[in-house]
């Protein structure tokens, strides 16, 4: 939270801002690695795992596609494959909520 407060300061230099952003990114990646242990049991591909973690974090398919420089249809295919592998292919579950539940267990 301190890092976010520092980013909001108007007097911060661009170099300082970039350092803080890198620190936040490292912290987020560490949290994702912890979540990976729970999601890993479903044998997702590396890309599916990346997509699943972003879905869990609340990103839309469009946001994920932009971030990963892929098409939205490619991300939708990954979503479909993730749903199939975790066993909710034809069920009416919110994927983000389900992935959060997996992480909590």
General description of the model:
This protein is an all-alpha fold. The protein has one domain. 73% of the residues lie in helices and 0% in strands. The protein is built from six helices and no strands. Helix 2 packs across helix 6 and helix 3 crosses helix 5 (72-86). It is elongated. The two termini are 26 Å apart. The mean pLDDT is 85.
Secondary-structure topology with pairs:
Blueprint: H1 2-8, H2 14-39, H3 46-56, H4 61-68, H5 72-86, H6 95-104
Helix pairs in contact: 1-2, 2-6, 3-5, 3-6, 4-5
Which descriptor suits the 3D outline? Answer: elongated
Catalogue the unreliable spans. Answer: none
Mean pLDDT: 85
- The fraction of residues in strands falls at under 5%
Q: Give a short account of the largest sheet.
A: none
**How big is the Rg?**
16 Å
Secondary-structure element order, N to C: HHHHHH
SS-based class: mainly alpha
Instruction: Please give the share of residues in helix.
Output: over 70%
Domain count, please report it. Answer: 1
How far the N terminus sits from the C terminus, by CA atoms, comes to 26 Å
Structure summary, number of beta strands: 0
- DSSP summary: helix tally: 6
Brief synopsis:
The protein has 105 residues and is an all-alpha fold. The chain has six helices and no strands. It has one domain.
Task: Give a quick set of tags describing it.
6 helices; mainly alpha; 105 residues
